[in-house]
Please model this.
Amino acid sequence: MNLTTPRKLNGFWELMPKEELLFEKLLSNIKETFKQNCFLPLDTPVLEYSDILLAKSNGVSEKEIYRFTKGDTDMCMRYDLTVPLARFVAMHQNELNFPFKRFQIGKVYRGERPQKGRFREFYQCDADIIGSETLSVVADAECIMLFERCFKALNLGVQIRISNRKVLGGFIESLKKEDVSTEIFIILDKLDKIPKDDAVAQLKELGLSDSQAEKLIGLTKTNGSLTDILKKVENLCENETFQKGIDELKALDRSLKSFDAKNYVYDLSVIRGHNYYTGTVFEGFLQNNEETIAIGGGGRYENLCGYFTEKKMPGVGMSIGITRLFDILLKQNYFDTNSLNEIDLAIINFDETLDDCLNLVSKFREQKINADCFYENQTFKSKMKEANRRQVKYVLIVGEDEIKEKTYTLKNMQTSEQEKLSFEEIVEKIKSDRMQTQK
Model:
């Protein structure tokens, strides 16, 4: 028999069991935060009709999309969660309450070259607010506040950098260059990756003068508090779009203060893509991180469902790059893996007590204690070694005398302390210990 070498595709995620437990805990904290802020869960299919997903590819190249046919059906694997959301809202618009607030956490797929921080399979963690015809800027502030609260729930410091695309867009209009605005945004979005001289040269190729290119790049360097921003740019130009962007920033700032958001600054270099977002945009960065890596963001889009319905449905959303974030935290040894145990209590039998131990396992599990019995190990010594190997804190030693007396020897493997306790006392002790650990 020829054996196949076990291997997995590059760029696809796979965690060890303890890492998976940590990841699930991360997701659980975020889900709870979403629910506390009145966002409803949604789960859409991994596969969609190709004409649905390709209708609005949001800057994702078709070469990156996994597309195939089964019989006569042309389908794609979802590359984000936003287009499926647009399809869902368009299909069910008469059944939903607006503003519709939803969250979704799920895997998406992109056939791009795997590299640092980029995967072919990864989780997106999204929350969006969708309006019907109109949507207040308060919704923009709510998504930014939600982003901040998610990281607070993870005990991670985050700095949120906020801008409004209308400010740059209006300035481009004032230069009479709106016909190449998409190309200009692409260049400005790369300013942290290319030398300034190269950016100026590329802007000049689009017809801008040296002076115009310098002013535009200078505008993206504006950051600080809203007061700082207004002092520098409020009277920079009279373009209507530009002034509307300034007004939206003012309204946003009032709502953020009302929501008691704290960890944010304004930074006009934040663009987030080329033409998807239409107003507020923001990005989040880990504080005190060794590298400056965006771990999420979001923004305002005026017509989410434009490819699927004539009804205008403006929206605003936030997304956490949860796979990238978890990968960074693992590499920085953020998690205390030694304190994470899949087993609360190992029950070790000797004499002829296996059946009684299995009954105890069942009773402890009913009390929501993760108990296990090492019935495959043949000797008492091998069972204790197994408990040590799995870093189990508590071991319950059960012999015939313990079964008769209904008191059991509970050993703390970290301190080597032993005590005789009843079933009820053991349950209380482990639950109390668990609560202290979670604080």
